[in-house]
Amino acid sequence: MSNTIKHSIYFLLIMALQVLALNHMNLGGYLNPYVYVLFLLVLPVHINKSLLLLLGFATGLCMDYFGNTLGLHASASVLLAFMRPSVIQLFFKNLDFSERESPMISRVGFMGFLKYTFILVFLHHLLLFYLEVLSFTDGLQTLLAVLLSSLLSTAVIMILVLIFGSRKT
């Protein structure tokens, strides 16, 4: 199966999970699992940067459409897509990835993938939550929501990758 078809199927499955199940979770007002970013995390390392930003925008725009959030997810997803190459370079500069290889657990190890995922999810959530409240007056409360939601989202992403990502992509 070609990479384009495989990633299109990943996108549809992840978005369906997010929209149909996870968007309806709001645990205690602080925990909002956003695992749709997994699609952006598992794209090939050497993807064209313009295409990566476009995919980040499109992914976020889909979330905005289904969540009626007026561009919040699009901007946060573009930030994630923009920061992704730098985070990959920071954590995996010693690894030589082939053209179609993704930064998966099988290649970067469990702890490497966990750090990579958490940093990008945290940055995504940081922008998303602060854009949502548009205020720094409750900064600590918002930061707590960002941290807890980032931990939950990262945990769910790790579980999904461990269950469904056993093969190299």
How is this structure best described in words?
The protein is an all-alpha fold and 169 residues long. It has one domain (3-164). It has helices at residues 3-20, 38-41, 49-67, 72-92, 105-108, 110-133, 139-164. Helix 1 (3-20) runs parallel beside helix 3, helix 4 packs antiparallel against helix 6 and helix 6 (110-133) packs antiparallel against helix 7 (139-164). The protein is globular and about 45 Å long. The protein starts with a helix and ends in a 5-residue tail after the last helix. The model has no long low-confidence stretch (mean pLDDT 91).
List the helices and strands and how they pair.
Blueprint: H1 3-20, H2 38-41, H3 49-67, H4 72-92, H5 105-108, H6 110-133, H7 139-164
Key descriptive features of the protein:
169 residues; mainly alpha; 7 helices; globular
Q: What is the count of DSSP helices, taking H or I runs of 4+ residues?
A: 7
Query: What is the percent of helical residues?
Result: 55-70%
Stretches with pLDDT under 50, minimum 5 residues: none
Largest sheet: none
Q: Could you tell me the radius of gyration in angstroms?
A: 15 Å
Q: What's the mean pLDDT score?
A: 91
The class by helix and strand makeup works out as mainly alpha
CA-CA gap between termini: 11 Å
* Basic shape: globular
The tally of strands reads: 0
